[in-house]
Specification:
With 295 residues, the chain is an alpha+beta fold. The chain is built from eleven helices and twelve strands. Helix 2 crosses helix 3 and helix 8 packs across helix 10. The longest helix has 18 residues.
């Protein structure tokens, strides 16, 4: 559910003295100017796996709350297991020892769900995950050298879809669908401004609606079998499933023309029932969220 967060301090009047207090951290790393001996910013420390940085004008705390929980309880750096609402609240409480952390502004937030599927995620990524809002992926790579990952970049957020099982060498198939909000506008609309707001189920439900809206905008299409489709429709589907058609071939066309083509594409997907993979992933995402929010 909630994973990576970044909390930004504009006012560091309480934050900096806390970080600079030897009773709070075993190690605080600073920059020493060799000639003058002056100590320069930034100051860096860690609370378990959380990165803590004091800058000249402010500071921030960042990293994965999900991984932090696993590190606290099992000394494991992982986020493939379930991270239920109760664990999220416990983790926020744990790091709230840092002054005003839970009330300070969130600037980045990541919401992702891991779902068990009945075939390799890599297969779905290569064959079915095509586009987001009719635009191709910006990155297609192996996640940390393991497993397929497709990333779709936008101004306020980015979407990652990847093979979680291969990332961690799991004995079962896991697909992760993740939305990282790189600007706070979208999660502010869900009533989330700081860590304390993440302890509200109502806010998380609103955030999940935004998350599912992004999922619904994805073009995830079953394998197209030529022998099962009328020749004219087959040619259209091949054209429509190519991102270059939308981004290059018709980029100068009117909005009305593009809308008609999108509607035609959707009609063909429905006509030949090419959305079974997407429907199943959607069902599993909703099922997983309901489990996490109620536990």
């Amino acid at each position: 559910m909630i994973d990576f967060v970044r909390i930004h301090y504009k006012d560091k009047s309480e934050f900096e003295p806390y970080v600079d207090n030897a009773e709070n951290f075993n190690n605080v790393f600073k920059v020493l100017e060799g000639n003058s001996g002056e100590v320069l910013y930034p100051y860096r420390a860690r609370l378990e796996i959380m990165d803590i940085v004091v800058t000249e004008k402010g500071g921030y705390v960042k990293n994965s709350l999900h991984k932090l929980y696993n590190y606290i309880h099992n000394k494991e750096d992982k986020n493939y297991n379930d991270f239920e609402f109760s664990k999220l609240c416990d983790t926020i409480q744990h790091i709230s020892r840092i002054p005003r952390l839970a009330q300070t502004s969130l600037t980045n937030l990541e919401f992702g769900l891991n779902i068990k599927i009945n075939k390799p995620a890599e297969e779905i990524l290569k064959k079915s995950v095509l586009m987001h809002k009719n635009k191709g992926y910006n990155h297609n790579r192996k996640f940390n050298g393991k497993g397929e990952l497709k990333q779709f970049n936008h101004a306020n957020y980015l979407i990652k879809v990847y093979d979680k099982a291969k990332q961690y060498n799991l004995p079962y198939h896991v697909l992760r669908f993740e939305v990282k909000f790189t600007r706070k506008r979208d999660f502010n609309k869900a009533g989330i401004y700081n860590l304390d707001d993440l302890k509200s189920k109502e806010n998380l439900n609103e955030l999940f609606k935004v998350y599912m809206m992004r999922f619904d905008e994805m073009q995830i299409i079953d394998t197209i079998l030529e022998e099962c489709i009328e020749p004219k429709d087959f040619q259209k589907l091949i054209r429509f499933k190519n991102p270059e058609y939308w981004q290059e071939d018709i980029k100068e066309k009117s909005g009305t023309f593009k809308m008609r083509r999108r509607n035609e594409f959707n009609a063909l997907i429905e006509k030949y029932s090419l959305d079974s993979t997407k429907k199943e992933i959607r069902r599993l995402l909703i099922e997983k969220f309901n489990h996490l929010i109620n536990n």
